[in-house]
Amino acid sequence: MPETIEHLFLVCEKWDNVRRNTIEKFFAQNNNFNESVSVSSPDPAQLEQVGKLLGGESKKSFCQLRADAANQIIELGTAKFLDGIRVARLLILESIGRSPAPLNQCPV
Description:
The chain is mainly α. It has seven helices and no strands. The protein has helices at 5-10, 13-23, 33-36, 44-53, 62-67, 69-84, 86-98. It starts with a helix and ends in a 10-residue tail after the last helix.
C-alpha cells in the first residue's frame, strides 16, 4: 500500500532524516532550528521553502539564480530532498492516477 502525504510529513523516518540534513542549513545560523520555524507567523522565505519542498518551481530566471549563490544552494537542497522521497512520491501519484473519478466528474 502506498504511503500517504501525512505519513511522509509526519511519520516517515527517511523524510525526517533528509529534511533535517537538507533544511536546517537554510534557516538562521544563530538560532536553534525549532526556534527559527514559527508555526504561527512564517516569514516569506520559510513559505517559499515549503513550496519548493512540496515540488513547486522556482520563479527565478537562470541569470538570477547564477547571480545569487544562496539560491543555488536552496535549489540543490530541494533537488536532494525530492530525490530522497521520489519513490514514495511516485507511488502516491500513481495511486491518485488509478483512483476512480468522483461521480460529479463523470460524463453522463
